[in-house]
Fold this protein.
Amino acid sequence: MDRRRVLKNMGLSLGYMVATPTLLGIVQSCKSEPAITWTPEFLTQDEGNVLTKLVDIIIPKTDTLSASEVNVNIFIDKFANDVMEKEQQDFFKMSMGKFLDKSLADSGKEKAIDLTAEDLETVLSSSLKYSKDDQIKMNESITSYTEALVEGKTSALDDETTRFAFANNLRGLTIWGYKASEYVGEEVLAYLPVPGEYIACGDVQELTGGKAWSL
């Protein structure tokens, strides 16, 4: 699959794509922050290092920049810290913990900082390789689990479904953060600064070459 073509042509279909002032502020704040000195606000330093490797597995450097090169890792950490509700934060932490437990067990390593991109990619890939029917069942279990927590009830989620939830959510957040970056908005997607020219009935192939519009 041509990941760049997918990014260029996909619409704004992710469920959490809401352009609130808080979200836009997060995107802007990530533009110039040097990732090399990044200290996570929500995650631990080790978890932040793992997150950086994971987003680059999802969107690696090719003819365009990798996810971490446009600070998607920083964006996700800030989004979790500043926008997610407490229940969402707890679920993100818990599901990432289950993902790391599996990565450590499979690699035979003891610390998250020692996990390589290869170690993580193996678990990420296996956590997403499910049929549509299996994904529907897992999403139903995740919904029931989160609803129970909100209602103050005791609930449990099996480890396999929990890892799927983390991997699936992370993939969506990574693509979202990448598309929302200034670099992708101006260099990868079709970009026309406001106010721009208004062409009501223009053909998308002629106007943008088939690319989705940048935000």
